[in-house]
Design a protein that fits this description.
The complex is a heterodimer of chains A (about 300) and B (about 290). Chain A is mostly helical and about 300 residues long. Chain A contains 15 helices and no strands. In chain A, α6 packs parallel to α12. The chains are: A mainly alpha (about 300), B mainly alpha (about 290).
């Protein structure tokens, strides 16, 4: 096939791609060019072409901010706990669901636990702020019946990170089971039959067949979650935190928001954002390499 | 699967069922409690007597919320956003997924474009440069700011492209023999065979548009252009004194803030609850395509 004919045959493909290419160039690659602001003192109205270059000044400023290392620590702490809980809880629940023989019961439980995944953190924050309130929230009312003093789930900085992990698990564990339940159906049934012949109990089946059968899925998803270690959950934390809990609850994304959008320190906020993007890219790269090696994972 | 031959021992089975039932109750409780609050009287809610059933049943909160023009307007913005944004997202997804699903010999630049789009998933400019670009392109305070910058969901493109590739080549080849070009193959051969995944992606995109709040919050200057979730962010989650009108102040003395908040939250949940049965039918396919197979 001549190059000329090849081009005409491929022309419709370029036509299909054209709008998306323009869009992505402007709204995804444009902001990447805008990252140069991390090396500028951004002046209002001057944009990235008129603002003076300041080299690493913004980064130096960020590093000497007393809160930056604390914020980085908070981010990794919250994201790390969420990643661990985000594997352990769904795997456990999937195994439990797999042991249920009544179909109606199983379906009902699934229907209820999948739902929170589809509700926004705005709606859930509205709900949690109300039910977790120390003065008149229903959770503390119930704890009160059990003789427990009111707990300030969202206002006590020692408890706040754990509240974030717990509410995140609440929202996502049900939906997280789907992947594992799907992996369970791929396990070779003859393995179970052989185990039955050998007199294995249900627990032994679960432990020696089911769990190893989904282990590659578990490894793959745990590895991929490494790329998210700087994503502690902006939507959730932004809507649930307050200055009371900045010490343990402030994360990179909320810091960028406050510095950039509220205080207009564009250069500094961009520098923090650039730091996050670069570290995340490295981690994603490592995660994909490991996932490819350990679990034979490919995106395309 | 034949594994059901062995059952859990009786006690373990009961325990297993009990824990699962408890988990389901834990998931349902906050939502049911909010619904109960929204139909309770202000005094009952204020004195902490509401648990899972309305106390002193009243629809006052709903009457108040539904008579609030700001709430209704933002509900309308959200609805419009779903109705306009979803078809645009889907069209863009389809138009990009097709070329990327071709083989390298059929589309020689395929790998280049695959990476061109994939890079945007792996690396981003971050919040501030993103905001600046949207401002530079004149979208601040425009409805289109909620639609255009996010019009191409790249992860959905990957899912759909993978799904196209799993369709037997013979079907396309037969169509090509009859003189079908790329457009015909895409719209007459591939799309009719991809209805389940298209339905899945459409539902997810629609839910995404309904639930989005951050772009509305920072890209709209005037609150009357806020979509519902952004409006709720400023009224329910993080009350902004500028958003409370005199009319609200007078009425709030009668109707407790708390039951009104619950009513607003519940109304915002209704569209999700309405399409949830559909979602549930499709998302299992979606998840399988997305995470396990890859």
């Amino acid at each position: 096939m001549s190059a000329r004919r090849g081009f005409w045959r491929e022309l419709p493909l370029y036509v299909m791609l054209a709008p998306a290419v323009v869009l992505v160039l402007v709204y995804a690659y444009g902001p990447m060019v805008g990252l140069v602001m991390a090396f500028q003192r951004v002046l209002p109205g001057k944009g990235i072409f008129g603002s003076p270059w300041v080299g690493g000044e913004n980064f130096a400023f960020v590093l000497q901010m007393p809160t930056f290392l604390q914020v980085l620590r908070n981010t990794i702490f919250i994201a790390g706990l969420k990643a661990v809980a985000g594997v352990v809880v769904p795997v456990t629940v999937a195994l439990m669901l797999n042991n249920v023989t009544g179909r109606l019961f199983k379906r009902t439980v699934q229907t209820i636990i999948y739902l929170p995944h589809f509700l926004s953190w705005i709606i859930l924050a509205g709900i949690f702020v109300d039910i977790l309130s120390p003065s008149d929230g229903v959770v503390n009312r119930m704890l009160g019946l059990a003789g427990i003093q009111p707990i300030f789930f969202l206002g006590n900085d020692k408890i706040f990170p754990w509240t974030m992990v717990a509410t995140d698990v609440w929202k996502s564990f049900g939906f997280g089971t789907i992947v594992y339940l799907a992996a369970l159906t791929d396990i070779d049934p003859t393995l179970y039959e052989a185990a039955v012949m050998d007199g294995a109990t249900r627990w032994q089946q679960t432990w020696h067949i089911t769990l190893p059968g989904i282990s590659s899925t578990i490894i793959m998803l745990s590895t991929l979650s490494l790329g998210n270690i700087l994503n502690a959950g902006f939507d959730q934390i932004f809507n649930l935190y307050s200055p009371l809990v900045y010490r343990t609850g402030d994360i990179i994304d909320t810091l960028v928001y406050r510095t950039g959008i509220l205080h207009n320190q564009y250069g500094v906020a961009t520098a923090v954002g650039l730091f996050k993007s670069v570290v995340s890219l490295l981690l994603i790269g490592i995660a994909y390499k490991l996932a490819a090696k350990w679990a034979d994972y490919r995106i395309f | 699967m034949n594994e059901k031959i062995v059952k859990l021992p009786f006690v373990e089975n009961l325990l297993n069922l009990a824990v699962l039932a408890l988990l389901a109750l834990l998931c349902a409780f906050p939502i049911v409690h909010t619904l109960a609050l929204s139909f309770s009287s202000a005094t009952a809610a204020g004195s902490g007597r509401v648990t899972i059933w309305p106390v002193e049943f009243t629809t006052q909160s709903y009457q108040f919320v539904l008579a609030n023009p700001a709430f209704l307007r933002s509900f309308g913005v959200s609805l419009l956003r779903v109705l306009v944004g979803t078809p645009i997202n889907m069209l863009m997804t389809i138009l990009v997924a097709y070329p990327l699903s071709r083989s390298n010999s059929e589309f020689r630049a395929r790998n280049f474009f695959a990476w061109f789009f994939l890079i945007t998933v792996l690396f981003s400019g971050g919040l501030i440069p993103w905001y600046m670009v949207i401002r530079q392109t004149g979208l601040i305070d425009s409805f289109w700011a909620l639609i255009i910058p996010g019009a191409l969901p790249v992860l959905n493109v990957i899912l759909l492209a993978n799904s196209f590739r799993s369709i037997p080549k013979e079907l396309e080849e037969a169509a090509a023999m009859d003189g079908a070009g790329h457009w015909t193959i895409l719209f007459r051969v591939l799309l009719p065979l991809s209805l389940p995944i298209l339905a899945t992606l459409t539902l997810f995109v629609a839910v995404g548009h309904w639930n989005a709040w951050f772009d509305g919050l920072i890209l709209m200057n005037s609150p009357d252009k806020y979509p519902l979730q952004s409006y709720l962010q400023t009224v329910v989650v993080n009350p902004d004194p500028r958003m409370i009108t005199e009319r609200d102040l007078a009425l709030l003395q009668i109707i407790s803030n708390r039951t009104t908040r619950a009513a607003q939250i519940f109304i915002a949940m209704i569209p999700i609850l309405v399409i949830y049965p559909l979602l549930q039918r499709y998302f299992i396919t979606g998840i399988k395509l997305g995470s396990v197979k890859g």
